[in-house]
Design a protein that fits this description.
The protein contains 14 helices and nine strands. By secondary structure, the protein is α/β, with parallel strands linked by helices. Strands 1-2-3-4-5-6-7-8 form an eight-stranded parallel β-barrel, surrounded by seven helices.
């Protein structure tokens, strides 16, 4: 838990507030009346958010979904943003027992050079997408800040919006990547239970829980326009993790009013060479409950539903509360550009392998408006 010498400590008190509130959160005390009271409010409080995540909310899930859908239409209309993740390296120095990229997993490793990155991004751009999320394994040695920055510069040639999901950095490093063209940063805390976190992350910089926790704030200090939050649902008590995720985002929104906030709601997926993880059950009803609770608590936030979920679940969620969907997804290295030969193994198994055109057509069929870029610089 102790910061390493190269890790910036910004002295933020947000983590202490979140962990204290999460530990005190007893979701079993909430009743149907508490949930109905939350639904009756125009602006939901932190207490309302707790009620909406409680078991007492499940019997009212239809009412909650209708309220979330109305909130979504009010702020986003029927638009749904499309993007794709692009994995440019899978070297990793962390030992996270649930992740296919972990340093002790025997997989094929690969890293794209600048020429290969260009071909990969050009191939993605041909599909019509104008937003990309760049990902690497968490290896500072292999995927340096300079390497990621160069990837951002190349991405800017092809895309209007560039996101990053890489290892946590210091604020000056985020500032450099922002100058290179990155718009936003997403960091999965995985679980907000620090004791469980320690048992899941056995080696590497990722073991330093507070440094990872404060990554979004450092990104905002570095000038990033937006930040994304997520817990990997199923690693621990999903209700407490979802509550902590929401409160974390809510506190940073209050502290940095200009920040654009986004949520992801990933559920644990199978990975290569690992049968040791038994996810704590998060069924479709609970996933819908979490997505709707985020929407009702922070109505202006973007909510992404990834290809970890099957097409049916994703199509349902974008009809209700999600506002961003991935398409044409591969979690392997260099799998969009056909000329890239040294492909690396995937991070996890996806459920929805539809192409960009197939996802686009599915959205149109549901009377939704696909949007290729949610932000345009002028």
């Amino acid at each position: 838990m102790t910061y390493l010498p190269d890790m910036e400590d910004i002295g933020s008190d947000v983590m202490d507030q979140v962990i204290s509130a999460m530990n005190a959160y007893n979701y079993d005390i909430y009743t149907e009346n508490d949930v109905r009271r939350a639904l009756s409010h125009d602006n939901r409080s932190l207490e309302d958010f707790k009620a909406l995540l409680s078991p007492a909310a499940l019997p009212l899930l239809e009412d909650i979904a209708q309220a979330a859908q109305a909130e979504t239409r009010k702020h986003f209309g029927n638009s749904v943003c499309m993007f794709t993740p692009a994995y440019i390296a899978n070297y990793c120095e962390n030992y996270c027992i649930y992740c296919g990229f972990n340093c002790h997993n025997h997989i094929k490793r690969a890293q794209l050079n600048e020429e290969e990155i260009e071909k990969e991004f050009a191939a993605i751009a041909k599909t019509g997408l104008q937003e990309i999320l760049i990902l690497t394994g968490e290896s500072r040695k292999r995927s340096t800040v300079e390497y990621i920055g160069r990837a951002c510069e190349i991405a800017r040639k092809y895309f209007r919006v560039v996101g990053l999901e890489v290892y946590p950095m210091n604020s000056d490093e985020y500032a450099h990547l922002h100058q290179c063209g990155a718009d936003y940063v997403t960091v999965f805390q995985e679980t907000y239970n620090s004791d469980k976190y320690e048992t899941l992350h056995l080696a590497g910089h990722k073991r330093i829980f507070p440094y990872r926790f404060n990554a979004q704030e450092r990104a905002l200090m570095g000038g990033m326009r937006g930040v994304g939050f997520a817990a990997l649902l199923g690693l621990d008590d999903f209700r407490k993790d979802a509550f902590a995720t929401g409160m974390h985002a809510w506190l940073l929104q209050k502290k940095y009013p200009h920040a654009e906030i986004a949520f992801s709601c990933p559920r644990l997926r199978p990975i290569i060479n690992n049968d040791k993880i038994n996810p704590m059950d998060v069924h479709e009803a609970q996933l819908l409950q979490i997505v709707c609770a985020y929407r009702l608590f922070m109505p202006f936030a973007s909510i992404t539903i990834s290809s970890r979920e099957c097409a049916r679940v994703r199509d349902n969620l974008v009809n209700i509360a999600a506002t961003k969907i991935s398409a044409g997804v591969s979690t392997g290295i260099g799998e969009h550009g056909e000329e890239v030969q040294d492909k690396g193994d995937e991070q996890f198994e996806i459920s929805d392998g539809r192409s960009v055109r197939e996802v686009y057509d599915a959205l149109v069929a549901e009377h939704l408006q696909p949007v290729m870029a949610e932000y345009i610089y002028v």
